Amino acid sequence: MAYRISVDSGGTFTDGVLIDEQGVAVMRKAHTTPHDPTQGTLECLRKLAQACELTLAELLGRTESLVLGTTMATNVVATHSGPRMGTIATRGYRLRMAFPQVAKADWKEGPVDMYDFHADPPRLLTPLHLMTEVTERVDCTGAVITPLDESDVRRAVRELRDQGVTTIAVTLMHSPVNPAHERRIGQIIAEEAPAMCVALSSTVLPVSGEVERWSTTMFAAYVAPVVTAFVTRIGTLLAEAGFGGQLLFIQSNGGIATPEIVKENPAVLLLSGPAAGPSLGLALGLDHEHRNVLSVDMGGTSFDVGVVHDGAVDTVREQIIDGKKFALPSVDVTAIGAGGGSIAYVDASGRLCVGPRSASAAPGPACYGKGGTEPTVTDANVVLGYIDPEFFLGGETRLRKDLAEQAIAEKIAKPLGLTVLEAAAAIYEVINTTMASGTDVAFARRGYDPRDFALCAAGGAAAVHAVRIMQELRIRKLIVPKVAPIYCAFGMMYCDLKHDWQRAFHAATAQVDFAALQAAYDEMEAQARETLRREGVAEADIVIQRSMDMRYWGQFRDRNAPLPGGAVNADALAAATAAFHQVHKATVGHSDPAYPTEIVRLHLSGSARMRKPVLRDIAAGRGAEQARKGTRMAHFAGAGLVSTPVYDGNRLGRDDSVAGPAIIEETFTTFVLPPGVATRVDRYGNFVTTVLEARA
C-alpha cells in the first residue's frame, strides 16, 4: 500500500492527512512546536502511522510524496525573532527603508486611529546602525555613473560581520537593468564572510520600484537562515526515519516546490501558510457546479479569506506584512484577526471587542487549563454548549468549562452587567460580525459581490460560525468540507508545481520594441523550463503562462493582463491590451480603449500538473437518526437555551439530512446548525447547505 501525505504546521496545531491507493483519507492533529517546527511535524506523522497501525519508519518507507506547509517564516517576521540582518545600499539611500512604506491604515492588523499621533510606526527588521551604504551609482538605463568602490564594500561587509550580522540584503538603485554591481558585492561578501547569507535585490525581485524590491529583498534575507535551516533539518530527519519519496513545500503563490528550489529563494515560503486552502475550495466548488468560491479558513489565531473567481485562484503581486511591502506573487488571502483563540475584552469606552489579539497555542484559551485567563472565542463556544468539553479533538483533550465561565464572568460579564451566558452569546455574535464584515470589505476591494459565490468554510473552528457568516453575507450555498479541520493540509494535494518570474519593462504600448519584449519573455521561459526540469518534470508536461502589467498612460492603477502564447507580436499585444481594458473596467469602473496605454512589468509562470487525489464515495445514508449521539443544552439567538440533538458526523452517510437546531460532531470539528437551517451530506461526506435551507 502506497501513501501520499501532506502536513501543515499552523500557529496552534499541525495538521496531517494521508491518502492511500483506495482513496481512503486519514486525518490527525498534533500541537505545533514553535521552538522547533520539525518536532510538531514528526509528531503528526507518528500519529498518522499509529492510525494505520504502522511504525513511523514503515509509513515513511511506503510514502510516495510528502508535502509540507509552515507558517514559520511568517511567525519569524511577526515576532521579529529572525537573525541579525544588515543591509548594503547605494550611497545616499542608506536609510530609505527606515521610512514608512504604507499608509497608516496598514501599519498593523485591526483598526487604526488615523488621528493618533502617538501611534508607533511599523518596527524595522534591522536597526539603523546595521544599514550601511557604499559608493556606486547606476542610472535608470543601466549606465554606470559612479563605479563600484570595492574597498568601500569590503569595509561595509567587515563592519557588519564584526557586529554579529549573519545575513545581508543588498539593495542598489536600478540594479534590475544592470545587476553587475550587486553581483560583485555578493562575490565580495562570499570572500570576506563565507558563512554569510546574502539576498540580492536584482535576483529576488528584478523589477523597477525600489521600495517594493528592497523591502522584499530584506524579507528574503531575514527569513533565509531560518527557512534554509528548517528545510535542511526536516529533510535530514525524514531521511533518517526512512523516507525516500519526493519531499515538497507549499509556496506563497499556491504552488509547490522541491527543497533545492526553496533554498535558492526562501522568501517563497513567507506567506505559504494559508496558500493551499483555495485550491481545495476550487475543487469542492467545481464538484457542486460553482466556479466562484469564497474560501475561509478559521483556525486558532486568524480567519483567512481566499477567493476563487471564474475557476481560478486569485493571486496578487503585492501584500502588506507587518506594515511592509512584500512583492513576490502570492495567493490573494486576506487574514482577519479572528480565530478560536481570539481574546474578548471590554475597551475603555465600555465596548465589547474580540481580537485581533490571540491566546495562541500557549497558554491558549482559559478552558485549556494551561494558565490562560483571558476569555476567548473557544471559551464562549464551550459555555454556549457548541463544543463538548469531553470531546474536544475527539476526546484527546479535555476542556475546563468552569475556567471558561470564570474568565468570561470576570473579564466580560461583570464589566457589562451581563450573565455569563449572555456574555458568551455576545462574544459569539461580535466575532461573527467581525468575520463577515472583514470578508465583505475584502470582496469590495476585489470588485466582487459575495452573493455570487459559494462559501467553503474550513478550519477547526469555522463550522461553528459558518451558517451565521453565510446569513450575514447573504451567500446562497455553504460547503463545510469533511476535511475542514485540515483544510490547508488537504489542499496541498490539489496544488501543482509552480514558479513565477518577473521583469522590469517600461514602454508605450504603441511604440514597443517587439524584439526586446520577446527576448525578455524568452529569458524567463528558459529559466522556468530549467527549474521544472530540475524538479523532474518532463518537457512535454511544462505549462507556460505569460502576462503583463499595463496602465493608462500617466496613470498609476496598473492591472495585469494575460498575453497569448506563441510569438510576441502585434496581434498578441492587441489581445493583451483588450484584456487590460476589460479588467480595468471590472475593477476600477471605467475603461477607454482609445486612450494610450503603457507596459510596466512582465510576468511568466511555469507549472506542471501533479496527480490529484481520487477519493472514495462514502456509503449511502440510513437516515440521520442512526447517527444521533444524544442531546445537550445549547444557546441560539432568539431561542435561548435549547435541548439540541447531537449527531456523530462520521456515522452520517451520503444524502443524509440534518435539520437545526442540531450539532454535528466529528473528531476535529463541530458543525452548528441554528434553528430553521438544514444541511445535506454529499458523496464525499461534505455538508452542503443552500440558501433555501439557510433562511434565518
Structure explained in plain terms:
- With 696 residues, the chain is an alpha+beta fold.
- It folds into 6 domains: 3-76 and 228-269, Nucleotidyltransferase, domain 5 (2-Layer Sandwich), CATH 3.30.420; 80-223, Rossmann fold, CATH 3.40.50; 277-337 and 435-494, Nucleotidyltransferase, domain 5 (2-Layer Sandwich); 342-430, no CATH class; 503-608, no CATH class; 624-690, no CATH class.
- Helices cover 31% and strands 27% of the residues.
- Strand 32 and strand 33 form a beta hairpin.
- Helix 10 crosses helix 12 and helix 11 (401-416) packs across helix 12.
- The longest helix is centred in the N-terminal third of the chain and has 31 residues, at 210-240.
- The chain is globular.
CATH class of the largest domain: Alpha Beta
Our measurement of the CA-to-CA distance between the termini, rounded to an integer number of angstroms, reads 47 Å
Q: Characterize the biggest β-sheet.
A: 9 strands, mixed
What's the CATH architecture name of the largest domain?
A: 3-Layer(aba) Sandwich
Strand content: 25-35%
Oligomer: single chain
Overall average residue pLDDT: 91
Helicity level: 25-40%
Structural class: alpha+beta
* DSSP strand count: 35
